Amino acid sequence: MNNIELIDSHCHLIFENFEEDLEEVVSRWRSIGVKKLLHACCELSEIPKLKNISRRFDELYYSVGLHPLEANKWECNSKSIMKDAAQCDSRVVAIGELGLDFFKSDNTNKQIDALVPQMHLACELDLPVIIHCREAANEMIKICHDLSKQGICPKGVLHCWSGTPDEMKQFLDLGFYISFSGIVTFPKAYEIHECARIVPSDRYLIETDAPFLAPVPYRGKRNEPAFVESVAKSIASLRSSDLKSIADESSRNAEDLFKFDLIN
């Protein structure tokens, strides 16, 4: 029997490319020891589907939030919709994925207008945030610093980490966790490798971001939660550790951040 237990701290399973074989996907993640998963929310229209899928699979929890690339969909009632959804379902364990993405979009003001109220909501509900930050570390750090000075910067995680060691240190200093995805398995992702080597043992998570960014040796395929094992193995190699230690550390950190077991 597999004595390795893993947590996929960020995935997306309600997309069309999982419709035909979702039960097989579930069997595969169970067979390799994935005990919990967090399904991230990209836009508010996904919330009913997320609620339904979390009812189908006991190990699945979810967040509510608006992705920065969907910032144009932020409306005056968006915060109240998210608040109601989070308060009505104990399987909601985070707000997000929220953040900034200057790689694919330049609507900076709209992204910030959607980001800050979600950060406030997370503090209000005492929930952690899932932060998407791409080519926007300086602005994200500034916003978090400003919120921290006001005493309203929530806990959270920088998901799918793709920054530099220096940027990572600044987010760690703000109290955030760092989550590594399949990128850490890519041979030329040197800065991500260094981040995985030096991140404190109590401040990192692992994820797939399925169906995106499949790790080596599955690159080019649809990603799925079972592949989180490859992420853990890569980090074990980088840290001169072993799979079980990485699985235990990352799972304990995810439990500490998202408080899964406190809501049942």
TrEMBL record:
GO biological process: D-amino acid catabolic process
Details of cofactor binding: Binds 2 divalent metal cations per subunit.
Residues annotated to bind a divalent metal cation 2: 97, 132, 159
Record's keyword terms, sorted: Hydrolase, Metal-binding
Domain of life of the organism encoding this protein: Bacteria
Pfam family for this entry, one: TatD_DNase
Required co-factors: a divalent metal cation
Binding site for a divalent metal cation 1: 10, 12, 97, 209
Catalytic reaction annotation: D-tyrosyl-tRNA(Tyr) + H2O = D-tyrosine + tRNA(Tyr); a D-aminoacyl-tRNA + H2O = a tRNA + a D-alpha-amino acid + H(+)
A single GO molecular function term of this UniProt record: DNA nuclease activity
Entry EC no(s): 3.1.1.96
Alphabetical list of HAMAP family matching this protein: Deacylase_DTD3
Function of the molecule: Catalyzes the hydrolysis of D-tyrosyl-tRNA(Tyr).
Name recorded for this polypeptide: D-aminoacyl-tRNA deacylase
Classification of source organism: Bacteria, Bacillati, Cyanobacteriota, Cyanophyceae, Synechococcales
